[in-house]
Design a protein that fits this description.
This protein is α/β, with parallel strands linked by helices. It folds into two domains: 143 residues, Rossmann fold, CATH 3.40.50; 109 residues, 3-Layer(aba) Sandwich (Rossmann fold). The protein contains nine helices and eight strands. The strands form two sheets. The protein has a four-stranded parallel sheet, with helices on both faces. Helix 4 crosses helix 8. The chain is globular, with a radius of gyration of 18 Å. The termini are far apart. The mean pLDDT is 95.
């Protein structure tokens, strides 16, 4: 049985974590693979600034540092920011899959251009960073926001009647006005809207979280992982220091 660790980028309760686990229902996976969802123990309240982005990178590195030692065969990161992905690839030999870049690259398997559909404008720098790293700015038709502040723990529960039509209207504008041939949901927190949009739009809609689960399964079946030429291992690993900082940060957050 292959085991995949899914790192959820916020500290949360079991009930809140369950809303993240619901993403598994959107993809049919083999009986020989299982997914374990684990929230970070310390991190930002949201991803709204460079301050938050730095904390997010560390929190996910801290959460996945021992994944290989703990017997996991792959890691999926449950945020379109791909926070901590590069750092984890430098310390792990098992596949580490982030939904941001993989959703964009998959979109180009399905069409010539894509748009990213997001909840609010404060997320836009995250996508701009990944687009720049991949050299795909010209392939991104637009990044459209509906101007609704996201809820990282309750997701879209109770907001469906308000949020879903707004997402549909914005997505249709991406297609009609911007020329998008594929739509990417801009966050794994938006996964509950995927079925609604996919059945109402004329172009493919990528649900980034479930995509990473399938890609992790595929990488394991093909015995593939990231290149050490791209992600070299550290010459002087500081794993004990990372654990200590994470533990101290979690204690400080608990006492706050």
């Amino acid at each position: 049985m292959k085991r995949v660790l899914v790192i959820v980028p916020f500290a949360m309760s079991e009930e809140e974590l369950g809303r993240r686990k619901e993403q598994l229902k959107a993809v049919k996976l083999g009986a020989d693979i299982e997914f374990h969802f684990q929230p970070v123990r310390v991190g930002p309240a949201n991803y709204t600034s460079q301050h938050d982005f730095t904390l997010a990178d560390f929190s996910i590195l801290d959460a996945g540092l021992d994944a290989e030692k703990d017997g996991f065969d792959a890691v999926c990161i449950d945020t379109m920011s791909d926070s901590g992905m590069s750092a984890l690839r430098s310390v792990l030999t098992i596949p580490v899959i982030g939904p941001g870049r993989h959703a964009m690259l998959t979109a180009l398997m399905l069409g010539e251009t894509f748009s990213i559909l997001v909840m609010w404008d404060r997320w836009k720098p995250l996508y701009a960073k990944t687009l720049g790293e991949l050299g795909l700015r010209e392939k991104c038709a637009s990044i459209r926001s509906i101007g609704v502040r996201p809820d990282n723990k309750n997701l879209l529960v109770g907001k469906e009647d308000d949020v879903f039509p707004k997402l549909l209207e914005a997505a249709q504008s991406c297609i009609d006005e911007d020329g998008a041939e594929v739509i990417i949901l801009g966050s794994t927190t938006m996964h509950q809207a995927h079925a609604y949009l996919a059945t109402r739009l004329s172009v493919p809609v990528i649900n980034p979280g479930p995509l990473t689960y399938r890609l992790a399964e595929t990488a394991l079946k093909l015995n593939l992982s990231h290149s050490r030429a791209t992600y070299p291992a550290p010459l002087v690993p500081k794993t004990d220091m990372i654990r200590a900082i994470g533990e101290a940060g979690a204690a400080a957050a608990k006492g706050a």
